Structure formats: C-alpha cells, structure tokens
C-alpha cells in the first residue's frame, strides 16, 4: 500500500488502484468488501462496453481483436515507476498479439485468453495538491492504434439521498439505479459534483463524457469515458474508436473536495 498525504488529506493506492481518498477523516472512495462492487477503481481500455453479443470480437484495422467487457488492460498488473510524498506513477505495458489470461473464463466468458494486435504502454500518474487529487492517463503506442478510454472510480455514499449535478441538471440516485447495467449516459460533460454528506467534484480533460452506474445504495460509480458503448450495437463498437497520433494521448481527472 502506498500513501500520499498532506495536512488533512490521505490517498491510498494499492498496486495502482485508488482505494482511499480521505479528507479530514471523511472517506470518499468505495471500500472493497462493501456491497456493490469488488473494486474501488479500474480503467476501461482499449475498448469500453460488453462484447459477448459480438462473440468477444472487436473490429480493428489489423483484423479482429479478442476482447472481453471493457478490454484487457484490467488483466495486466501495474508496476510502480516512481513515488514521492505526494505523487506516484504506475505503468502497464503490452506486446502486440500476446495472449492474456481472461479472469472471467469460464464462469462469465467463453474466451480463455484476450488478444490485442498493437503494442501499447499505459501510464497512470497520481498527484496530490491540497484537497485535489489529479489522476493522469498517458497512452503510448503504435501510430493509428485504435482505442477508447474509460476511468471507473467508485464513490462511497454516506447519506440516504445523494444527488449528482451535471450540466446544471440534478440526477437522483434512483435514476441511476433504474438504468441498470447499461449505465446512465451523460453526454458532452466534463465536470460532475456528487452531493452527499460532503461534496466531491470530478473534473476531466480529454474524455468529454460520463456514465454513472450502481446497483446498490451505498456506492455510485461516476465514470469519465471517451465513448458511450451502448450508443451502438456491440458489433459496431469500432465506431467509438479514437486513433493514436505521433504524440502520446493524455487524459486527466481531478477529484476535488
């Protein structure tokens, strides 16, 4: 476990995963073991969304990639690259065509291994300043590599009636619950405030959209995404791809209390 801290804020990071963001003793991150989800944050890359109805195949310029829901990045382990009192950098690397064991097989998937036909390097950087945690994602790889990116943090709920404010719209927890597994789409949105016992604001750069998901009342996932996957048929997920250029692709998220 790595801790970043300052006068009144403590950030806990476990193998690259954000497991705690506590300000003045108030915990904002969903805790593992609590109802709702087994994780506290993860990334969705190089695709977002389910692939089962497309036989776990996603069309890419180099042919077809074997991908399970939300891609293969989560099956790779982060390596700690650097650390200071208020920052930490983690990296995942993938060699094109390498078979990666699928943790969902055989109970939730028919695919034992996942394969992506491109090299990539995925860097996740944390920086704590005052009561703001900046999370930066840097994607390096082959020019013209297709990709989507989603960040999937889960926030702990302390009150019975929390609300989400997005684009001057008030969203109730019941509205998120009603959408179910598809997740509530919030288009053209770069900032969301979760109003609970205490407030936290999630601001982004590069993503452009959010989706919100939960199946319980004690947590809610507020997820910056580059593409909402349920806007298309699973066989058409390729329509949501961006493509790497000559420079790295950089996405940012700020959690501010």
Textual characterization of the structure:
This protein is mainly beta. The chain has one domain (2-256): Beta-galactosidase, Chain A, domain 5, CATH 2.70.98.10. It is 3% helix and 46% strand. It has one helix at residues 173-179; strands spanning 2-5, 9-14, 17-23, 26-27, 43-44, 57-60, 63-66, 79-83, 87-94, 100-101, 113-114, 120-129, 132-141, 146-147, 150-151, 154-156, 163-166, 169-172, 184-186, 191-195, 199-205, 209-213, 219-225, 242-243, 249-256. It has a nine-stranded antiparallel β-sheet. A four-stranded antiparallel β-sheet has the order 1-2-3-4, with no helix packed on it. A four-stranded antiparallel β-sheet has the order 16-23-22-19, with helices on one face. Strand 8 (79-83) and strand 9 (87-94) form a beta hairpin. The longest helix is centred in the C-terminal third of the chain and has 7 residues, at 173-179. The chain is globular, with a radius of gyration of 18 Å. This is Aldose 1-epimerase. Its cofactor is Ca(2+). Monomer. It comes from Flagellimonas iocasae.
**What is the name of the CATH topology?**
Beta-galactosidase, Chain A, domain 5
Kindly name the structural category. mainly beta
Helical content class: under 10%
> Proportion of β residues?
over 45%
Determine and state the CATH class. Answer: Mainly Beta
| Shape label | globular
Radius of gyration from the alpha-carbon trace, in angstroms: 18 Å
Number of domain modules: 1
CATH architecture: Distorted Sandwich
Average pLDDT metric: 97
Order of strands across the main sheet: 8-9-12-13-25-21-20-17-18
> Main sheet?
9 strands, antiparallel
State the separation between the terminal residues, measured CA to CA: 23 Å
Beta-strand segment tally: 25
Put simply, the count of helices is 1
Write the H/E string, N to C: EEEEEEEEEEEEEEEEEEHEEEEEEE
- List low-confidence stretches: none
Pfam family, one: Aldose_epim
Subunit structure: Monomer.
Organism: Flagellimonas iocasae
Protein name: Aldose 1-epimerase
